[in-house]
Write a structure and sequence with these properties.
Helix content is about 45%, strand content about 25%. The chain contains five helices and eight strands.
């Protein structure tokens, strides 16, 4: 299977992108790249400037706040969406806990994709609102 086909296959599985049509997925695929991270590698650190969105194709990562692990994420999960939108520092540290293959979309390409595919912006905001609500429910239940 060609690398660009692999990108489209993985993008289509993500709830955030699953309702996009083939041309919209191709736009995102064209603007993204596949990057490898070995086990133990810090993908990004809390407090640093964020300019990339990450989608896990293979592997697992730990999301940490200070020394505390907040969650573990794997295939199909994504992270980095907050900083790519607002340019604020990263709210957590993400570390590869296995060898990883990630699809990476940089802020400039992401902005270009939203200009080319305006419906992506609304879908992205809807997915983020759901994630925020889920996070609020989780916080209130503890």
């Amino acid at each position: 299977m060609k690398r660009k086909d692999i990108k489209l296959e993985h993008l289509a599985r993500v709830p955030l992108f699953s309702s996009l049509n083939q041309n919209e997925l191709k736009t995102l695929g064209r603007m993204s790249e596949i990057v490898y991270f070995p086990e133990g590698k810090v993908i990004f650190e809390e407090g640093t400037t964020g300019r990339e969105f990450f989608l896990i194709i293979e592997g697992q990562a730990a999301v940490k706040k200070g020394k505390r692990t907040l969650s573990k994420v794997g295939r199909g999960s994504y992270f980095g969406e907050l900083s790519i939108l607002d340019g604020e520092p990263r709210s957590a540290t993400v570390v590869a806990i296995s060898d990883m293959e990630l699809l990476v979309l940089e802020q400039r390409q992401f902005s270009g994709a939203i200009r080319e595919v305006p419906s992506l912006g609304l879908k992205f905001l809807t997915a983020m609102a759901k994630r925020l609500r889920d996070s609020d429910k989780k916080a209130l239940s503890h």
